[in-house]
Amino acid sequence: MRLGxxxxxxxxxxxxxxxxxxxxxxxxxxxxxxxxxxxxxxxRKEWEQHLGAHGWSCIGWPKEWGGRGATLAxxxxxxxxxxxxxxxxxxxxIGIELAGPTLLAxxxxxxxxxxxxxxxxxxxxxxxxFSEPGAGSDLASVRTKARLEGNEWxxxxxxIWTSLAHISDWIFVVARSEEGSKGPKGxxxxxxxxxxxxxxxxxxxxxxxxxEFNETFFDGARCPxxxxxxxxxxxxxxxxxxxxxxxxxxxxxxxxxxxNELDGIIAAAKANGTAxxxxxxxxxxxxxIGLQLMRYGAMRMLSNTDHSKVDGAALTYKIQWATWxxxxxxxxxxxxxxxxxVTGSPEYEWGMxxxxxxxxxxxxxxxxxxxxxxxxxxxxxxxMPREPRGDA
Amino acid sequence: xxxxxxxxxxxxxxxxxxFLSGTHGPEVLRRxxxxxxxxxxxxxxxxxMGLTGLLVPEEHGGLGMGLLDAALIARECGRVAxxxxxxxxxxxxxxxxxxxxxxxxxxxIARGERRIAPAHRLNGAVADGEGAALDxxxxxxxxxxxxxxxSDDALLLDLGALMAAAQLVGLAEAMLDQAVxxxxxxxxxxxPVGGFQAxxxxxxxxxxxxxxxxxxxxxxxxxLDDGIASAAVHVSHAKVAATDAAYLAAESxxxxxxxxxxxxxxxxxxxxxxxxxxxxxxxxxxxxxxxxDAAVIGGPHPIGPENTFA
Lengths: 392, 310
Prior knowledge:
heterodimer, A: Butyryl-Coa Dehydrogenase, subunit A, domain 1, Butyryl-CoA Dehydrogenase, subunit A, domain 3, 3 domains, 11 helices, B: 310 residues, mainly alpha, 3-stranded antiparallel β-sheet, 5 strands
């Protein structure tokens, strides 16, 4: 175990901070501090390209694919400074955190050449076509169909909750390629260009009025026969590999954003006097403890390079942060009292906290609900008997 | 001792429930959200039911009923996420004016021609007031800035907290109903998701919270009506229990709905947002818990076996 950072790592931190702050004070000042993924989409794409042009897009990737081959410590440092500088979230996070690492792990050399440099350069934005109206928690029951027609796949069906599909260039799709197959068998992992007549995207309005996600309809959508990762019928394994990257280094950047949110609540509690309330003080202390234990848990998870065993930290991370943040949203509302109801008014300076509350309602649902996470922990982690299921 | 509410007192609330379920369904909430938020025809319907005059003494043209009757109806207003400002005008402002001996407006309030938006300093804003408009997380709440002459009267606060609690109970009941229904029709892993214990237990917990919030609410309404010394503590208990139940109902209902619960097209969000708004109004949980602990620990609230059911 080695905690803390070396002198050269601290120099790297200063370099990151200087560069990020310079961009956010200069050319990209107009996007600094944005907390949603939908605002100023075009400028956000320009930011992706700017990161790529300066080699800051995917620093953990190998140099040959547009990365810097950065160490874990350096990636941690960059994520921290990114959040500290108020840089908005990555609109290509699906590409850089999910599609890219999956291609690095399972893609052919040709696929890597074709996609990775463009993802790193911010020129190819990816979105994720997993969930369907009838396949949410039960992801393996996808019904979207793919059939080979000559040298092309033809896809029919519907995906849902496709975040940022409306600004994306490519979508990866888990589709049923073997007719009559059920569950995780007979699925293929395709990569499809979005701008084609067979794909239609309709936005879904969220409870906060924003529309980050979409329904994506496939009606005779096409892609070349070799536009797949892994083998035909091997899509479930590829999808599971991809999901394992959801708990990658990006979690550290997320924790810095959490830090900012908790600091905002503490500032609000001090300003309106609730910081003298013992109940509020204890909940703030609990939130601080929760944040710290997530931080050390994540460091341990990322330090583990032996993926042959079930990693308890990786298995428990999602439910931990999701529940923590949902509770943080409720703490924000209790700190604010009725002011927590007021949004977007300059005289109510805590406008960001009610938004945090609304956003955090989704945390315990997406990427595997808390109920699914508990089943995974119990069944995979503890080896308990699997839950009885219906006739699926 | 009798903790049941007399059947004749429930009759009016049941009539209101029938009326509101027939005239104030989710399609009305969607219509109001797309338009100007308030509808004179809906208001007129409430006036014709006599609800604006429910607590106005008979000599001023009202029905002269009590706070328990009003709380039963405020709960019904919560059940349908009523947008019109009936509760705060007729069930909070009216009994406060009566207690002040200010009867000048009562007849016009009873006739529905005048509405009072009670302004209390503990609140950061006024619902349906006359100040500058503020945005609420609840698209059907009309929030306005707090006037400089807002009251800090203790009775007004208790009335507001009591009626917020009553609405929160109704909101929680409606969210629980929606979640139960959805759990029966949403299928995953080859069966309705309501068949999974993880889902059943979540909603059973909401049912427990609600079952124990209701009698506390009725106790608080009766205590405030009777003007007993411990009324404020009962009101705080009701506000905490109702807020706990409503927040738990909201959290559980959205979870049972999955990602659909996070969308605008599923109507659940109207109830959730009202619950979140009313949970903070008229004193947050932290405020009311502090009132309870101050009363219980070294305060005036009598403890000991002979006071357990007081």
